[in-house]
Amino acid sequence: MKLYYSPGACSLSPHIALAESGLPYTFEKVNLRAEPRLTESGADYRALNPKGYVPALQLDNGEFLTEGPALLQYIADQVPERQLVPANGTMARYRLQEMLNFLSTEVHKGFAPLFRSQDDTVKEAAWQQLTTRFDMLAQVLAKQDYLLGDSYSVADGYLFTCLSWTKYLNRSLDAWPVLQAYVGRIGERPAVMRAMQEEGLL
């Protein structure tokens, strides 16, 4: 498999999942700040993925899969013995999907105005909205080590990725010591460190 990524972007989450999986993979950086959007090898990224954003995963048969939550579950399902996701058809799997959807729509997308808007009022409103999401996540993680309970899942790699963006935005997690401890704990996982090193983030 081959992951198309941009350093530190949401594509870090499936990159972490690949590292956790133990499966063989390669990766190629995409320049999202230029048009045409070119990959590190000079390929036209939009010709590979018409959506034009990351992540995209090229499967061994040449097919492409996009959208982070789909990639996370696909990767994890290739190695059920690693228990990176609950088994299909179980209530625990639906809880995972519930959390992935929450992270995708309420946390991940919530950061967009902070990166893109030039209006400080818009940015502050977006941050205030995010703080309510952080409050909820902190309540969950005050009771358990991981989002789904006592075991790491691909949802944790996703939340770690999102929370890591606060440092690029000069925003503090001081109000949520539980989240700070969580970021530190997840960041020490060998697979997380490997993915970050491969993206030049460490």
Record keyword descriptors for this entry.
Glutaredoxin, 2 domains, 202 residues, alpha+beta, Glutathione S-transferase Yfyf (Class Pi), Chain A, domain 2, four-stranded mixed sheet
Would you write up a description of this structure?
The chain is built from 9 helices and 4 strands; from the N terminus they run E-H-E-H-E-E-H-H-H-H-H-H-H. It has 2 domains: 2-82 and 192-198, Glutaredoxin (3-Layer(aba) Sandwich), CATH 3.40.30.10; 91-189, Glutathione S-transferase Yfyf (Class Pi), Chain A, domain 2, CATH 1.20.1050. Helix 1 (12-21) packs across helix 9 (190-198), helix 4 (91-108) packs parallel to helix 7 and helix 6 (120-143) crosses helix 8 (177-187). By secondary structure, the protein is α+β, with helices and mostly antiparallel strands.
Task: Please outline what is shown here.
By secondary structure, the protein is α+β, with helices and mostly antiparallel strands. The chain has nine helices and four strands; from the N terminus they run E-H-E-H-E-E-H-H-H-H-H-H-H. Strand 1, helix 1 (12-21) and strand 2 (26-29) form a beta-alpha-beta unit.
